[in-house]
Design brief:
The complex is a heterodimer of chains A (291) and B (377). Chain A is α/β, with parallel strands linked by helices and 291 residues long. Chain A folds into two domains: 113 residues, Rossmann fold (3-Layer(aba) Sandwich); 147 residues, Succinyl-CoA synthetase domains (Rossmann fold, 3-Layer(aba) Sandwich), CATH 3.40.50.261. Chain A has nine helices and 14 strands. Chain A has a seven-stranded mixed sheet with strand order 3-4-2-1-5-6-7, with helices on both faces. In chain A, β6, α4 and β7 form a beta-alpha-beta unit. The longest helix of chain A is centred in the N-terminal third of the chain and has 13 residues. Chain A starts with 10 loop residues before the first strand and ends with a helix. In chain B, 37% of the residues lie in helices and 25% in strands. Chain B has 13 helices and 18 strands. In chain B, the strands form five sheets. In chain B, strands 7, 8, 9, 10, 11 and 12 form a six-stranded antiparallel sheet that branches. In chain B, strands 1-6-2-3 form a four-stranded antiparallel sheet, with helices on one face. In chain B, β10 and β11 form a beta hairpin. Chain B starts with a helix and ends with a helix. In chain B, 45% of the residues are buried. The chains are: A alpha/beta (291), B alpha+beta (377). Chains A and B meet through α4 and α5 of A and α9 and α13 of B.
Chain lengths: 291, 377
């Protein structure tokens, strides 16, 4: 079992003919992902790694029944591709590119709010994607790190998701689904929305949150976590991040007293989350939760 | 990108907000001349990208051009939060009856702009929130329709703005919102907005931060020489294509991602002090890591370097070649410890070892950092 993505999910790759899009399509197929179509405007009729390419998302959906889409589209074209994809009826969108203008992301956020009656899930921008261990992956996570199992991981950072996954796999502890929620100032889903999926997933026993400085996602999720029945642990990176400096990710910036490791750990700790002082501390916690 | 006050004020003025006449100068002589041109009394304001400059003595009045010379000599060259003041803004001193506040920022969690106004201006909005929370009004704005005049009027009225100023203040708030949109701003703020003795309004401070990811499409709106608030090493990092943040420790750190880099600093920091944060992002090449080593070695007093890489989107074997080439060419003497996992890891380890790098093959960064501690003890 898993959340959001499994081996049957019919996946569309937008920007499939680009350098990163085509390479990553190879790796996603190699992992077993059911990629049914690609889109690059003007390249309809081509194929990449045996996947048919269409001019638009709606044509791809009509022809192949694609139900999820992963973006390898240049940042300045993402807003356009996003509205197109929502209108084409796709309900899981993974936005890998980084450096999107924040105002574009706010327009996307507004547009999502208007889609009443639909349950659309968006990861990113600046996400490594989502991987359901042993089944399928959308995005750029290296497949070799994963081992099927029952721990869910949500991360704001790509490399740190790999580190956490690698530590678990190395000790023989598997994962259900690993989700990158994105590292931008504005995210298109919330941490609590992702946690709700794990709480409802019979294939997940416990969840690890991998956070970092900046924003208030972790603080805002605390209320929901109090209601969860499954154990949650969290590691928050950035104890040495100075105030006002962007730590590589646009969203990883402490503004005044907001977004510090301390405020996040306090809010999560008060909600009953096990705070991991360092990533490797996930191992004793996982053992205690029966893994 | 944060703008200097004078740059923000210029944009505010061009977009229809009332701002005082001002001149930017770099020397006491120029400050005196500016005071003569504008007409004393004047206010001389340090142009630095740091908060609390008033408390630090960076904003002072001068009654005459001669005094402007003296005040400017004190302010130019002073340090505010570690940043040296190089220029000052000379503006006409105005007398006012009341100070107000208006600001618009991005609420990242809600994904919308949030407008904040207060009938108490002149101090930081965080301070107002602490002392007079009832005097702050906020409103989230759906970006697809924007801030309407009626809701601006309602917001300032409900927040206790003076009865005679509701329409004029709402007008300024709507203009500020348009500036926020036009500039793809993360922050647009007037603090304070003052009511002058004759009842007219004036924005006597201006704060604007543009979104770095939008600078390209903002074109001419972006001030020239727009890189600021970075040390010379941070500048070099940006030029070669990595994110470098200078810290005060002596252990250099290279990571192939932002989150991994922050976690690596946390782990090193348990016993030692990181000298920097450095992340390459997904663009590793041999050349990039060669240059990155060159950048790292500019830091004085470095005791060791710790390298932490994942080969997902990155060709880490290429990166290792660049690092080893640098070590051999320049004869690097300090110990280097590396952890590198993912595609072509064995090849990467071989290359690192050929340059005398201590390679740790285990997965947890903690174990690799333990090796660093061991090497240094």
């Amino acid at each position: 079992m898993s959340i959001l993505l499994n081996k049957k999910t019919r996946v569309l790759v937008q920007g499939i003919t680009g350098k990163i899009g085509s390479v990553q399509t190879h790796w996603m197929l190699d992992y077993g992902t059911n990629i049914v179509a690609g889109v690059t405007p003007g390249k309809g009729g081509a194929n990449v790694e045996g996947v048919p390419v269409f001019d638009s998302a709606s044509e791809a959906v009509v022809a192949t029944g694609a139900e999820a889409s992963v973006f390898f589209v240049p940042a300045s074209f993402v807003l356009d591709a996003f509205i197109e994809t929502v209108d084409a009826g796709i309900d899981l969108i993974v936005i890998v590119p980084e450096h999107l203008p924040v105002h574009d992301v706010m327009i996307m956020h507004d547009y999502l709010q208007q889609q009443t009656g639909r349950d659309i899930f968006v990861l990113g921008p600046t996400t490594p994607g989502i991987t359901t261990a042993g089944e399928a992956k959308m995005g750029i996570m290296p497949g070799s790190l994963f081992k099927p199992g029952r721990i869910g991981i949500i991360s704001r950072s790509g490399t740190l998701a790999y580190e956490m996954t690698g530590i678990l796999t190395d000790s023989g502890i598997g994962q259900s689904t690993v989700v990158g929620m994105g590292a931008d100032p504005v995210a298109l889903t919330s941490l609590s929305n992702i946690l709700k999926r794990y709480e409802a997933d019979p294939g997940t026993d416990a969840v690890v949150i991998v956070g970092e400085v900046g924003g208030v996602q972790e603080e805002q999720a605390a209320d929901y976590i109090k209601k969860m029945t499954k154990p949650v642990a969290a590691y928050i990176a950035g104890r040495f991040a100075p105030e006002g400096k962007k730590m590589g990710h646009a969203g990883a910036i402490i503004r005044g007293t907001q977004g510090t490791v301390k405020s996040k750990c306090e809010a999560l700790g008060a909600a009953g989350v096990t705070i991991l002082d360092t990533p490797i501390d996930v191992l004793p916690w996982a053992k205690k939760t029966g893994h | 990108m944060k703008l200097y006050e004078h740059e923000a004020a210029q944009i505010f003025g061009e977009m229809g907000l009332p701002v005082p006449e001002g001149v930017v100068v770099y020397s006491p002589e120029e400050a005196k001349a500016a005071a003569e041109k504008i007409g004393a009394p004047v206010v001389i304001k340090a142009q630095v990208l740091a908060g609390s400059r008033g408390l630090a003595g960076g904003v002072q009045a001068a009654e005459t051009p001669e005094e402007a010379f003296a005040v400017a000599s004190r302010i130019i060259g002073m340090g505010i939060q570690g940043i040296k003041v190089e220029k000052v803004l000379v503006t006409r001193k105005v007398s006012f009856q009341k100070e107000l506040y208006m600001g618009i920022t991005v609420d990242g969690y809600r994904g919308q702009p949030v407008v904040m106004v207060s009938s108490e201006g002149g101090m930081s909005i965080e301070e107002v929130a602490r002392l007079f929370p009832e005097k702050i009004g906020t409103r989230h704005i759906p970006l697809n329709r924007g801030l309407m005049a009626f809701e601006a009027r309602k917001l300032v009225k409900d927040t206790g703005f003076p009865a005679g100023q509701i329409g004029a203040c709402a007008d300024i708030l709507v203009k500020l919102y348009q500036i926020f949109l036009r500039c793809n701003a993360l922050i647009a703020e007037i603090n304070p907005l003052v009511i002058l003795q004759d009842g007219t309004l004036m924005a006597i401070d201006a704060k604007l931060e543009m979104d770095d990811s939008a600078l390209k499409r903002l074109g001419k709106l972006v001030p020239r020489d727009h890189v600021r608030n970075e040390t010379s090493m941070e500048k070099k990092g940006r030029e070669i294509g990595v994110t470098y943040v200078e810290l005060d420790g002596d252990i250099g750190m290279i990571a192939s991602g932002a989150g991994l880099g922050m976690a690596t600093m946390d782990i090193i920091g348990k016993k030692l002090r990181p000298a920097n944060f450095l992340e390459t992002g997904g663009g590793i090449t041999e050349e990039l890591l060669y240059k990155t080593m060159d950048l790292m070695m500019m830091k004085k007093g470095l005791r060791a370097i710790f390298i932490n890489l994942y080969g997902g989107i990155n060709p880490i074997h290429e990166g290792a070649k660049g690092i080893v080439r640098y070590i051999k060419e320049k004869g690097v003497k300090i110990p280097i410890v590396a952890k590198a996992l993912g595609n072509r890891q064995e090849e990467t380890w071989e290359i690192f070892r050929s340059g005398g790098v201590h390679v740790v093959e285990e997965v947890p960064t903690e174990k690799a950092v333990a090796k660093l501690f061991e090497v240094l003890s």
